[in-house]
Amino acid sequence: MSKKFLVYSILWSLIQLVEVNCRITSRRFDHTATIFNNNLYILGGRNLNYADIVGKDFFYFDISVALNTQKLLWHQVSSINNVPSHYGASFVKGGANNNTLILYVPEHIQFSFSSPEIDFVYTFDPQDNSNNAWNIPKIIGNNAIIEKFSINIIRKKFLTGIVDYYGKIYLWGGIKRYEFDSDMYILDTTNFSLEKRNITNITNSNLPTLRIHYGATLLPNNKIIYIGGYDGKNYLTLEQVYIYDTISNNWYREITTGIIPSNRGKLSAVLGLDGQKVIIFGGSNNSNLKSNESLYVLNLTNFEWYIPRISGKIPKNRYYHKANVIDNYMIISFGRGYNQSIESDILLLDISNNEEYLKLQREVDFHNNVIRFHGIANSESDNDRNEVSDFFGFNDLTNELKEYFEKNEKNN
């Protein structure tokens, strides 16, 4: 093992927060997960049968209070009757005072577009305990964007909304009306003005191909990095990543080196604590990714991929999950690909140590509240090894892409 690799090594400790039968929510994927203060808010999603029956669930857990690792206490949030059932949405922290949660809802009507879906942005005030915490803001901007007919057009799903340091949400890619979309929509959450940028008109050979289910995160320089994804036919390579400059409206392509992860989509990506690394977890392609293929780090100084040193057993690979960072920890929530009887719906990964050493961490300290280590994931059973996971794109996108695939098959 090279010294260079050792320098790049990172300590990962897995602490499982194991729920018991009193959970108030069911397993889900394609949900949203958002940090506000010390709460992790979970909203919407689909169940394992690809039905959005959990699409109106809204709950959180508070990591600033005492946590029992064998009983993760979820708190139900007030009624959300005015918010449509949904999945594949974006839910970010923003607003004029950065104290509001902003929900961007994708198109919901699957096969009939005759009924208008006018409202696509909802706001939630986490500090309002009444039933009026949810509101529908008035969107301002170009009439061509906001008129009743066009509202449906900008409702895209299977994208990742990224909020910058000024409260603007960047909505790129995704699917609308069964078609992959190239436009970049920018919603300023401080005044709810909407802007559309047609990036296909940019004279730039570094434009990314159209995609969904990519990983994305905001960088310290207010640029956004996009990693992997799915183009309706293939899972995309991580041999190159794309960076969008939010100020100049320009794209840059960076060729990566090192131990390059396999092609994948439905992955998560977060910025490391030092601002110099991007950490990805999970994802899927046309085969079942193994546990040792799920964790990678991209060094942003030279765009070199490496596999971090691991303390403890890596959990099973997940996809359609969400990842957030709070304090020194990367929080993985829900998703597909894991056995709920063996692993928790919530995983914590310690990403604080950039030195090369291994130490199994037995407890973590959240705001002076010590959470004792409960256990590393058990070994996979024979049934788990033989499990045929649902990783192929045709099943994942189901009816939303039915027409798209039929069209492709005819052309081929």
Structure description:
By secondary structure, the protein is mainly β. The chain is globular. A hairpin with a 5-residue loop joins strand 22 and strand 23 (277-281). The protein has a single domain, classed as 6 Propeller (Neuraminidase). The chain has helices at residues 3-8, 143-146, 148-153, 382-386, 393-397, 402-411, and strands spanning 14-17, 32-36, 39-43, 58-62, 75-76, 90-94, 100-104, 121-124, 134-135, 140-141, 162-163, 168-172, 175-176, 179-180, 184-188, 193-197, 215-218, 223-227, 240-245, 250-255, 257-258, 268-271, 277-281, 295-299, 304-306, 322-326, 329-333, 346-350, 363-366, 369-372. This is Galactose oxidase.
In short:
The protein has 412 residues and is mainly β.
Q: What is the element layout, followed by pairings?
A:
Blueprint: H1 3-8, E1 14-17, E2 32-36, E3 39-43, E4 58-62, E5 75-76, E6 90-94, E7 100-104, E8 121-124, E9 134-135, E10 140-141, H2 143-146, H3 148-153, E11 162-163, E12 168-172, E13 175-176, E14 179-180, E15 184-188, E16 193-197, E17 215-218, E18 223-227, E19 240-245, E20 250-255, E21 257-258, E22 268-271, E23 277-281, E24 295-299, E25 304-306, E26 322-326, E27 329-333, E28 346-350, E29 363-366, E30 369-372, H4 382-386, H5 393-397, H6 402-411
Parallel strand pairs: 10-16, 21-25
Antiparallel strand pairs: 1-28, 2-3, 3-4, 4-5, 6-7, 7-8, 8-9, 11-12, 12-15, 13-14, 15-16, 17-18, 18-19, 19-20, 22-23, 23-24, 24-25, 26-27, 27-28, 29-30
Pfam families: Kelch_KLHDC2_KLHL20_DRC7 (PF24681)
InterPro entries: Kelch-typ_b-propeller
Keywords: Kelch repeat, Repeat, Signal
